[in-house]
């Protein structure tokens, strides 16, 4: 399997009042990406950040900003997020059934990497056309909790989706998000996930660097077994 591990602390669990220093702290601890949860209070019952915050953070870091759009109208965010310096733009398949081709094209034109996310209740088959397309997404985010809040319990039953994706697409970036940490990483990594988002388990740890390193090791070890 040729996909590298990417450990992405979810900045939703950070102290938003000190976002730049929290980001630096995570990168110093060994994070590969910074996961940025953008919520509109409509697609999910929570409201977080948008392009102005991404733009402010971009002034302080060159890191890959992995933006997860939990919004009803992702197309409206492409231009502002591209301008703000987002790196990845992952939209939800549930709200993009009509316009995903246009959306992927626009995301790439703005210099971002397109990804598609799916909620726990959405069958994995719904993302296949977006991967098989001539202009495909480059990452699939399998949500392992209902999107909206940090600190929820990992749903192991989502691993069947990860396994199906990995069998079909050996070199695809497959991200998991929600309830990941030392007690759940092996299940996710052995199913084939290589991009790991973790909020409370990293920010709440006495030694976040140890948690990041343990999760990377698990992804690498499980890949060696394949
Ligand atoms: O997108 C979300 C929640 O919607 C996540 O990124 C959470 O922020 C992950 O937090 P933990 O479950 O790891 O605490």
TrEMBL record:
Keywords: Carbohydrate metabolism, Cobalt, Isomerase, Manganese, Metal-binding, Zinc. Substrate binds at residues 10, 68, 148-151, 179, 199-200. The keyword Membrane does not apply. Its cofactor is Fe(2+); Zn(2+); Mn(2+); a divalent metal cation. InterPro entries: Aldolase_TIM, Ribul_P_3_epim, Ribul_P_3_epim-like, RibuloseP-bd_barrel. A divalent metal cation binds at residues 35, 37, 68, 177. GO terms for biological process: carbohydrate metabolic process; pentose-phosphate shunt. The active site is at residues 37, 177. Belongs to the ribulose-phosphate 3-epimerase family. This is Ribulose-phosphate 3-epimerase. It comes from Gossypium raimondii.
């Amino acid at each position: 399997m040729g996909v590298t591990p990417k450990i992405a602390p979810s900045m939703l669990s950070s102290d938003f009042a000190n976002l730049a220093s929290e980001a630096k702290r995570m990168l110093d601890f060994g994070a590969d990406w910074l996961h940025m949860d953008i919520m509109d209070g409509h697609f999910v019952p929570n409201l977080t950040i948008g392009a102005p915050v991404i733009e402010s953070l971009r002034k302080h870091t060159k890191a890959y900003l992995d933006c997860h759009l939990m919004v009803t109208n992702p197309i409206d965010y492409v231009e502002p997020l591209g301008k703000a310096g987002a790196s990845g733009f992952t939209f939800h398949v549930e709200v993009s059934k009509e316009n995903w081709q246009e959306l992927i094209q626009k995301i790439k034109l703005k210099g971002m990497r397109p990804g598609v996310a799916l909620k726990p209740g959405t069958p994995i088959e719904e993302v296949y056309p977006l991967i098989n397309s001539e202009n495909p997404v480059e990452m699939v985010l399998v949500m392992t909790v209902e999107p909206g809040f940090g600190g929820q319990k990992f749903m192991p039953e989502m691993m069947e989706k990860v396994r199906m994706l990995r069998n079909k697409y050996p070199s695809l970036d497959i991200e998991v998000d929600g309830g990941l940490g030392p007690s759940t990483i092996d299940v996710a990594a052995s199913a084939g996930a290589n991009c790991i988002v973790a909020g409370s388990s990293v920010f709440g740890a006495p030694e976040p660097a140890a948690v990041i390193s343990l999760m990377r090791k698990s992804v690498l070890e499980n890949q060696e077994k394949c």
